[in-house]
Amino acid sequence: MKVSPYLQFNGNCAEVVAFYEEVFGVKAEVYKSCNGFIDHAELDLGDGWIGLSDTPQNEEKSSFGNGGISISVLLADVNEVKAVFEKLSKGGKVFEVPAMTEWCECFCTLEDKFGVNWSLMCT
Description:
There is one protein chain. This protein has helices at 13-24, 78-88; strands at 6-9, 29-32, 38-45, 48-54, 70-75, 93-99, 106-111, 117-122. It contains two helices and eight strands. Strands 1-4-3-2 form a four-stranded mixed beta sheet, with helices on one face. The chain has a four-stranded mixed beta sheet with strand order 5-8-7-6, with helices on one face. The chain is α/β, with parallel strands linked by helices. A hairpin with a 5-residue loop joins strand 2 and strand 3 (38-45). It has two domains: 1-56, 2-Layer Sandwich (Signal recognition particle alu RNA binding heterodimer, srp9/1), CATH 3.30.720; 65-123, 2,3-Dihydroxybiphenyl 1,2-Dioxygenase, domain 1. The protein starts with 5 loop residues before the first strand and ends with a strand.
């Protein structure tokens, strides 16, 4: 079994997808509806993926923002953690800068400019 996070946004999903493509250096598979909203997008990240979409117009708007959800990404090494951190933290809030911890060589946490919380680390 694999579990993947699925994030919904309030009309700015295309902007979010473009940002994450740049940060992680990958290309998302995007399916748009006739009104320009993103019905579904998949961002492949190594052995996993993140699903993204705009909140459907007939549903209540998403409000997850900083509501206790965090995406954890295990990266290859300290340099990769620092590079992703630099891009992902632009316009967001830094909670913990990249540093060595008891459990890994490099760890950091942040909220990106779209209100999504991230934990970045390497073994």
